[in-house]
Design a protein that fits this description.
single chain, 2 domains, mainly alpha, elongated, Cytochrome Bc1 Complex, Chain D, domain 2
Length: about 160
């Protein structure tokens, strides 16, 4: 009798454990399915409109475009930007061809509608998945120097 009781208890514990494993597998599977569906929907969704806050677009460049500023901007641009935007700023860098919306900084007409604040904001914060942010890798003055250097492309 004692042996049958232990056997029942063992089967009951085994049954509970199997039930918990089955339940956990079900919950995990449902979560995985929902995640996959959400990811699929996000890929098919239209990209969110990119807006630069007006107060950031209105920021004035505190760094004058001196020869020293342009030299500093050129140095950072060569390391962080030229691979996509091209050495001449024409959007024809080694990786630039992969993107349809890469700007041509040599187009004076297009550049006259962009404020220094906008250029700073996009450089600092990136733009969607196409352009990674400079974030905190560079000091503000270095980003402003790059803005001055980028502006110089349209003047050549």
């Amino acid at each position: 009798m004692k042996h049958k009781l232990k056997h029942k208890q063992w089967n009951s514990a085994r049954f509970k454990r199997a039930g918990l494993v089955l339940l956990a597998t079900f919950v995990f599977g449902c979560g995985l399915t929902l995640w996959a569906q959400q990811t699929k929907n996000e890929k098919n969704a239209a990209p969110a409109e990119y807006k630069i806050p007006p107060e950031d677009a209105a920021k004035a460049n505190p760094v004058k475009p001196t020869d020293e500023s342009l030299a500093r901007g050129k140095k950072i641009y060569a390391v962080d930007c030229a691979m996509c935007h091209g050495n001449r700023g024409d959007g024809k860098g080694d990786l630039g061809g992969d993107y349809k919306t890469i700007p041509d900084f040599t187009n004076a007409e297009a550049m006259k509608n962009r404020t220094d604040g906008e250029l700073f904001y996009v450089t600092r914060n990136g733009k969607g998945t196409d352009m990674p942010p400079e974030d905190n890798r560079a000091k503000d003055d270095d980003v402003w120097n790059m803005v001055n250097y980028v502006r110089s492309f349209a003047k050549k």
